[in-house]
Amino acid sequence: MTADLTSAFRHAPIGVALATVDGVLTEVNAALTELLGHAAGHMRGRPLLAMTHPDDVPGARDACRGLARSRSRRWLHECRLVHRDGHAVPVQVTSSWVDSGTADPHLVMLVEDISERSARETELRRRSLHDPLTGVGNRRKFSERLMHALRHGQQELTPTCLVVVDVNAFKMINDRYGHQVGDLVLVAVAERLTSTARHSDEVVRLGGDEFGIVCGDTTTQEAAVLVRRLRRAMAAPLLVGDAELMVRVSVGVGVSEPGNDPDVAVVAIMAQADKAMYANKSSAAHWG
Predict the structure, then answer these.
(1) Positive or negative, the Cα torsion across 142, 145, 149, 155?
(2) d(Cα 212, Cα 134) in Å, to the nearest integer?
(3) For residue 176, how many C-alpha atoms fall within 13 Å in the half-sphere facing its CB?
(4) Cβ 157 vs Cβ 258: under 8 Å
(5) Which of 5, 129, 208, 237 is the most buried (most CB within 10 A)?
(6) 30 is in which domain, residue-wise?
(7) Half-sphere exposure of 59 toward its Cβ, with a 13 Å CA cutoff?
(8) pLDDT tens for residues 157-208?
């Protein structure tokens, strides 16, 4: 390299590496060693794949094969590299296949830390899948988890249950105490449901005063146990601000049998759970 090129390589603000076409590092700059916490001497002679997060290695191998096939001057790939202390570093690797004819073909890699962007994207996705008031999953999250559970049930021949929970007389709570208290009641109900559900269950707010619990790989008997536990939990008053309120709920359960077609089952299980919930609500109203 000339002096100017050497300076540009050494002092570039992002990671830069030269590598063989097999991805073995031959030169690395200071930004890359700082990013991964390794000395340059430790990195030279090692493939970048050796510093790639194990879960991301298959994708990185595919990217390497794609670059070799295309011999592209600009091949982008995102993955996680592993810092010397063990934590994962999200990066975007831009690779260029160089075949000048005057030297052996080699790769130039730009390795950019995208931790902040990745964190923003993760937070945006979290917000897109969660109800801002209660913090539990929203309708979109519900659709994703229910379809995932139903597909698993089709593949693994396991049943799926859906528990629908509706807060009784919620309009009266809003009318009597105001919408701010009504919101606090929904938050408290969501917390009660979350504490009652199993770790594998997904509690979601379907909208208004209605919640759902997606229970994958769950029999009707197991769902009945969950419902009994839920009713016992809701029998205790909710602490809302400085007041204790008795809040009753109506509950319905839908079930999809093992092996059912998910696209058909998703409509049926929701209809069954809703029908059971409204029957429970009607019964509660009839008996006061």
Answers:
(1) positive
(2) 13
(3) 7
(4) yes
(5) 129
(6) 3-120
(7) 13
(8) 999 999 999 999 999 999 999 999 999 999 999 999 999 999 999 999 999 9
Position 125 in a domain: no
Task: Say how many domains are in the chain.
Answer: 2
pLDDT digit string, tens, across residues 80-101:
999 999 999 999 999 999 987 7
Residue type present at position 115: S
Matching residue, tokens 């009707």: 220
Residue at 66: amino acid letter:
G
Of these ranges, 225-234, 236-245, 279-288, the one predicted with the greatest mean pLDDT is: 225-234
Length of the chain: 288
Does the model's pTM come out above 0.85? no
Token output for 275 = 């029908």
Using DSSP's 3-state secondary structure scheme, residue 72 falls into coil
> Quick check: 264 pLDDT over 50?
yes
Residues 280 and 143 occupy one common structural domain: yes
Q: What is the largest CA-CA distance in the chain?
A: 90
